[in-house]
Predict the structure.
Amino acid sequence: MKLKSFLLTTTLTALLVSPVMAAESIPQGQIKGSAYTHTDRSMVEALAHAWTVLPANMTGNVAYEGLYKDHPKVTGKVPSVIFVHGSGGINPEIKKFQRWMANELSIASITLDSYQLPDRMTYSSPIAKEDYEKIHALRASELKAAVDFLRKQSWFDGRFVIAGTSEGAVAVARYKGSADVPQEKGRIIYSWSCENNYHVETHRTAVPDTVPVLNIMSKTDKYFSKANPYIGNENATGTCRNALLGHPDV
């Protein structure tokens, strides 16, 4: 009788307590700030404060690293990369990558500063999908503005790649250029799995077959794989493999 009581108690504990413990392991998301659409002024500032790295063959001296608004006079034309930062902003690793491209490949690059939008919405995950989509719309507007901005630069040779990480990579994966701008020569998608999950309403990946694409993920991404307890997709692979299935140049 005591054994039966013990087994019953154990079973009830497993059924009733364990789900609560699992729920408690999921963090409570939070939103700060209320702005998620650029004004004309904030977009101008986002571009002016873009982290810009120009190779030495453009400056005639050493590579320039700094804000776009402070860049020196340059000569010549070079290929370029537009980088879209993640939710953490323009971090040292992005600057390091831009420096490497300039020094090793003679490629210019710009990373527009999304945080020039006053009271910009920020968050800790998870939050509602519709709130993530507000941010994704913001980042998409920034990428389109950056492409239009780049093509007007005297040093732009007509060739460019778009790249982004995490939140910024969603904009890169979804990007659809307008007819009046040149098509990008490639895309680099860092730390985004191009899958339906907690971070999007639908992934809406839109990489043309004519555009080579590189997806770089960690072996087990803590946000976009099954390792995330709130991933919201029991079939998540943690990569863009399925979204890019059949693409001729992955």
About this structure: The beta strands are 30-32, 51-54, 64-67, 78-84, 108-111, 122-124, 156-165, 186-190, 213-216. The helical segments are 2-24, 40-48, 56-59, 92-105, 129-151, 167-174. The chain has six helices and nine strands. Residues 30-216 form a domain with the Rossmann fold fold (CATH 3.40.50).
